[in-house]
Prior knowledge:
The protein has helices at about 25-40, 45-55, 60-85, 90-110, 115-140, 145-175, 180-200, 215-235, 240-260, 280-310, 315-320, 320-340, 345-360, 370-395, 405-440, 445-480; strands at about 5, 485. It is an all-alpha fold.
Amino acid sequence: MTNTAVDARVGTTPQAEPAPAHRWWVLAVIGLAQLMVVLDATIVNIALPSAQHALGFNDSDRQWVVTAYSLAFGSLLLLGGRLADLLGRKLVFLVGIVGFAASSALAGAAGGFEVLVVGRALQGLFGALLAPAALSLLNTTFTDAKERAKAFGIFGAIAGAGGGIGLLLGGLLTEHLSWRWTLYVNLIFAVLAFTGGLVFLKRGAPANRPKLDIPGVLLVSAGLFGLVYGFSNAETHHWSSPQTWGFLAVGGLLLIAFTWWQTRASHPLLPLRVLLHRNRAASFLAVAISGAGMFGVFLFLTYYLQASLGYSPVQTGLAFLPMIGGIMVTAQLSTNLLIPRWGPKPVVPVGMAMAVVGMVWFTTLGLGSTYAGNILPPLIITGLGFGLILPPAMSLATVGIGPSDAGVASAAVNTMQQIGGSIGTALLNTLAASAASAYLVGRKLDPQVLGQAQLHSYSTAYWWSAGFFAVGMVVTAVLYRKGRIEQDPDAPKAIHM
């Protein structure tokens, strides 16, 4: 079997330092912080109806509780990642935790819609500092191949299962306490993560600190804002609306301008060398595509369980547990056994194929479907597939990256997942709504027909999600190189936190 050497010399420093003895405690701190950020992608969604009733805002405003977070998070991730490289990962990580906790408290205590939205936007801003700092800390802490595989298996399982955990926790907190506790719960995670970060993370910032690429920051932040905002508008506006295609077009042009500028900047925000390695490019695309396709499960299966089958929020969260279990099993299997033995080329495409099977199976669900017979099998298959995709892709997207670029490379991973999720949400919501409207044309509007229209809209979303994963299967099969991943033995393993 051939081996694929990853060029680990890019952006490295000349001296290596030994791995910290407390590195597994570092993983626990990073994992806790990552869980806090990932939870917020879904935990608030279940609480939205209760928050809307308590604060008295209308349906058209409701999307801003979600969009405010994703806009700030998605558009500022690359800046957050580069700040981690420039100022030190420990400092940025701790600032991100404190800010995330404070903004969560502000949103949880909101007495009106405006304060809630401001709190959510601030959560996104500090999450954009926290998420890339956490992943880059993981990347620079675990340099031994076997330990790195275990660490990224755990981290990837958290990233993949966090959405499902958020649904369960959101249901429990909303049903038994208050919608405000879906935000206050972050304070508990933050205290633990901050304390652990103070104790276990190493101090330090780069000795030779390059200048921040201000034009690059402005171009990429505005470009990502345009994309996320445009796709968010697609949920409430038609695709022909200037508020949709206008922002998408401007965002795309700004990102093209950003790419051009990165080839000329003396200290580029995102050095193109980070993106132009085949395995890394395949990994970035795998993260983006899975981010888009996963919404077919989390979003529409949640709708189906609650609206069609009458599940409570807690029952809905519990229903996702087998999928979370599947992700955790194959996350460890893929990073510790399959990738080291065969490399990513067979593993990630197989995960994509399993996700395709699960999505197609979901299209058969009906009003009389049972959990054990009809929902559980595709849920497990999909979870097993996700565990073969996300943990290996997140690890391979940052392997071989030197400490000076670790933060921005980690931010690029998070950006791909965020943009993929925004695209997936907008497309699937729009396509599902159009399918439901088309189904109702010429039919008598009775409860049975309305229920079937909902099922038809969910099925449409599942088919498109299956299409996303099918594209991902082909792309990763073509782009990933054959053979095992071998770290360059001559590359220094500098650790810079």
